[in-house]
Amino acid sequence: MANCxxxxxxxxxxxxxxxxxxxxxxxxxxxxxxxxxxxxxxxx
Length: 44
Prior knowledge:
The protein is an all-alpha fold.
């Protein structure tokens, strides 16, 4: 991916296909950004 000549947007599309939310959160153990936002957001 680092030497991709297709451009930033094309590389981002390929990364989204390779690393889905399920892979990132479930298998790799990273926290969900949307769940974190819902936990810390301030209601106005």
